[in-house]
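[audit] Reproducing an earlier prediction to check determinism. Same input, same settings, fresh worker. If the tokens differ from the archived copy the diff job will pick it up downstream; this log only records the rerun itself.
[audit] input (173 residues):
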Amino acid sequence: MNRKTKLHVVGFWCDTRQVPARIEESRERALSVLKAKNPELLARSRPVKYPHPKYFVSEQPSPDARKICEYLRRGHRIREQMGYAYCRFAGDTPDEAMGTADMTDGTWVWPEGLPIYVERYDVRLPDEFVEHMRRRDFKSPPCALNYEDVEYHLGKWTEWSERCGAFENPPHA
């Protein structure tokens, strides 16, 4: 059995759009069926928390913002979504600009639209991730990973987000 490559998640945000009641009801019914069939599985699973980017807006743009954005745009497309992402800040960024893919450098994974947050909104990224890019001289290496060969790990992202206070007062849709 092949071991999966662990990718550290960065830049995945909470969903701020309203979920129609019928979809929420369907989700609740599906969860109750799963709970009845396998209560242990649900007891072990934890809900995933994602922060809102507003908690990471910096008063000053990063001196490396241009290089960071270039690095992010040159990542390897590892997974395509069925539709466009959307910007969590109200404004003039069309969904198409946010992209449809998850990008990677073989160590980290981020949404295709992450450079927009850095460029337009001065959103800062974890120091560990920025140092990782800096060590590579902001050059994303070739990557031959496939989505089936990787696991997304949220630990570093959620820990950093918690240290920044991103979950103390979650934004409301």
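[audit] rerun output stored. Observation attached for the diff report: The chain has one domain: 5-16+50-163.
[audit] end
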